[in-house]
Write a structure and sequence with these properties.
Blueprint (H helix, E strand, L loop, with lengths): L2 E7 L3 H12 L6 E8 L6 H5 L7 E6 L4 H11 L4 E5 L3 E2 L4 H11 L4 E3 L2 E2 L6 H11 L23 E5 H7 L9 H11 L4 E3 L5 E3 L5 H19 L12 H17 L3 H25 L2 H39 L1
Length: 327
């Protein structure tokens, strides 16, 4: 089987270099790479050209339209039987394509995703972010854990589809704010099977400071509401958890100082939760520094997502109210 790897990029030439280096040492060699420059001011053209004699690689520059439509652009030019999408800040282990190819040979499916992990070379802060984004103690467990409830919705940092999926679905219908999850929802509703291939993991570098991480997760919270504009039944009670987590914490903190015993008990719950985060991160990463940082990143993750979700939901309610008033 022949694979087309699609990499959309915007102003990140150094990241693309790291990703391309990891792709040069794949043990399975039947693939091409398409780098889609999404209107970048700082392009990666020179970096890409330095790999042109090493691997099958094509570079495209297009006007900025967002990552979703840039992936579609790659799909349109791809030659493979299967299309694989990576984020530009990923590093791919040497066995990735061989693992996927073997799985698809034994278990033919039309769409898959894989987990993300922290590379040993990552900074303590990057490892802490990875913990928060993948731990079952946060909302991150759905991003690659072996144990999951319900259908699996691949995300575009590490996602593969067959050519048939693209031909039937038309690819991404929105370009930002939950575009990958919206795509996965339509893939499943069109009758295709999705799976998590446990060993098809990537090392995902993500953001490098707390403020950037906050902005990213705030955007994720908004994106969940944006998806509901296309699929109203996709808002579940579980999506309210980060917002409730934040709201209850703030209320409990205020009222516990006012002497309300019940809310003091609730603060104890948050203390226990913090301790669980610490020891879970310490057990996984074997690092005291990462364990301490994981507390900050986990609370940031839940808070930012919750604030983003509520803010976008209020925007949606305002729009609905205006529609009623104008009707």
């Amino acid at each position: 089987m022949y694979y087309s790897i699609i990499i959309p990029v915007y102003n990140r030439p150094e990241e693309v270099c790291e990703l391309l280096i990891s792709l040069t040492i794949q043990t399975y060699r039947q693939f091409e790479i398409l780098v889609i420059e999404d209107g970048s001011e700082i392009t990666c053209k020179d970096a890409v050209e330095s790999f042109s004699n090493i691997i099958s690689l094509r570079y495209f520059f297009k006007e900025n339209s967002g990552q979703g439509f840039s992936r579609n652009y790659g799909f349109e030019h791809a030659k493979g039987d299967y299309f694989i999408v990576f984020d530009s800040d990923c590093i791919v282990p040497p066995h990735y394509l061989e693992t996927v190819n073997q799985y698809l040979t034994d278990n033919p499916v039309d769409c898959w995703g894989g987990p993300d992990r922290a590379h040993p070379s990552f900074s303590p802060f990057q490892k802490a972010i990875n913990f928060s984004m993948t731990s079952v103690l946060t909302t991150g467990g759905i991003r690659g854990g072996k144990k999951r409830i319900g259908k699996f919705y691949p995300r575009s940092f590490n996602m593969g589809i067959s050519r048939e999926v693209y031909n039937k679905t038309g690819g991404y219908k929105i370009t930002r704010m939950g575009e990958d999850l919206e795509f996965s929802i339509r893939i499943i509703r069109d009758g295709f099977k999705t799976v998590l291939i446990d060993d098809a993991y990537v090392y995902h570098k993500r953001r490098t400071d707390l403020s950037q991480f906050f902005r990213q997760l705030h955007f994720f919270g908004r994106a969940r509401v944006n998806i509901s504009r296309f699929h109203p039944d996709e808002i579940k009670a579980v999506h309210l958890f980060p917002s409730l987590f934040l709201a209850v914490f703030i209320i409990s903190l205020i009222l516990s100082f006012a002497g309300f015993v019940f809310f003091k008990a609730l603060i104890s719950f948050y203390i226990i939760y913090t301790i669980l985060l610490f020891f879970a991160a310490l057990y996984r990463e074997k690092s005291l520094t990462v364990a301490i940082l994981s507390i900050a990143t986990s609370f940031t993750q839940l808070s930012a997502y919750g604030i983003g979700f509520i803010s976008e939901y209020l925007v949606e309610l305002k729009k609905e109210k205006q529609k009623i008033q104008n009707s």
